[in-house]
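Our platform keeps sequence and structure together, in a single record for each protein. Such a record has a labelled line for the sequence and another for the backbone structure tokens. This encoding replaces a full spatial description with a residue-level series of whole-number codes. Below, we set out a record of this kind in full and without editing:
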Amino acid sequence: MKKKLLYLLLFQVLFLKSAGDLLIQLGDEKNNEWKDSVQCIVALSIPKSGSFLLYKCIHLITGKEPVHAFYASEFTKWENGFVTNHELPTLKAVNAYKDLGIKAIFIYRDPRDQVVSSAHFFKEYLKNPKAVEMSDNILIMDCIKNSCFWWDYVVFHNILSKNLSIGGLYNSLMPWADCAFVYSTTFEKLVGSKGGGSDQDQIHEIMNIAQHLGYHLNKSHAEDIARQLFGRFTFRKGKIGAWKKEFTKEHKTIFNKVAGQLLIDLEYEKNFNWAS
């Protein structure tokens, strides 16, 4: 339980000071250019897909503090905070978001990198007893086949079937991307060159996120935010394509069976041949 709480509060403890420094630096420009912001903001994510990166980005844009809430509809401190969660896009949740006028940002990443990051998270950070007993290869395979078994322990608490693979996990959350009040981004777009991405894409994405939330950033402000996003506390390594160094041939084969179509649908691959 202590580890879970640390996971949920990590961002608030480590990043608010640097965000505050940036907002002070921007000074009066904030009041003149950022006046059309919405009150209700939710940061949605697939676990281990750049959640803290997104939280930090939103905080630097808005000055609001990230607060974890399992259900956004139960949150009340919208003036000074925004919700962070992995809530499922049920009809009830979607309607509640609409009724509250919520603007949400949803982030995901290459599911193969998500698997690798998850395995290290459970073994090295949470020190889950079952994960600790497994070799890295076996644990990665189990996170491919039984992704929701692992994430039920931290996030879903019997809401999802524990038998779902990584494909099932993504398919349970990706419908958020089809909602009009949601802007979808990816870890690959937001991480910048320090994580193997593009600084140009990162700045463009920061501006897109701000626009969706009603904050009018110019390029200079976006660049200021970009310089602060990548940090050692934001994620374990934060590199695109880490799966290439850790997937075995067997990992590739099984992943292709349970989530090969997902990779194509999300445009991470054009066909199934990547596993050959």
